[in-house]
Amino acid sequence: MTANTRTRLSPDERRTQLLDLGFRLLATRSLDELSIDLLAEEAGVSRGLMYHYFGGKQGFFEAVVQHAADDLYARTAPPAEGEPLERLLASITGYVDYVVANQAGYRSLVKGATAGNDSLRAIYDTTFAALAERFFTADPGGDVFPDTPAVRLVIHAWQAMVEDLVLTWCDSPAGLSREDLLSVITASLPAIIDTLP
């Protein structure tokens, strides 16, 4: 008979472990399907410990969604060097791969943000503003993405289109390969910006 031994973790390590587990579970479940009971069971900890770290279900959801948003931001980081469009392609590739790998969780983040959950909306808005800002840091000379109010407006609308396109493609690729999808997304932004006066 083998005994289950628990590893004693520091409070920060335990909280990180619980967030990582919540994030992994969110990849295949919606936020509505996550619960304190499920996470406590999966982690082999008491419900009380979950309440200690997160204060309740809403606090846990917010922490997991913030953890997921931080992961999305990290995975979509463009390379430090290269032409702006090459860097855009690398970032878009990271985004598409992230959404494909985390569909259920990503959809529930979008749903929560649009359904009036102010906390989830704030996380969503902050993350997408940070992602948009990368266009200007990746192209400091403004050769492809000049930093103007009109370009910022176009990028904001383009992000919404990309999100919808990728989620729809996940459900029904409509004959587009991953490479085709990446090409359409990457080429569309400079094409739209080129139409600006």
From TrEMBL:
GO molecular function: DNA-binding transcription factor activity; transcription cis-regulatory region binding
UniProt cross-references to Pfam families, sorted A to Z: TetR_C_46, TetR_N
Alphabetical keyword list: DNA-binding, Transcription, Transcription regulation
Domain called HTH tetR-type: residue spans: 12-72
Stretches that traverse the bilayer: none
DNA-binding region listed in the record: 35-54
Superkingdom classification of source: Bacteria
Protein name: TetR/AcrR family transcriptional regulator
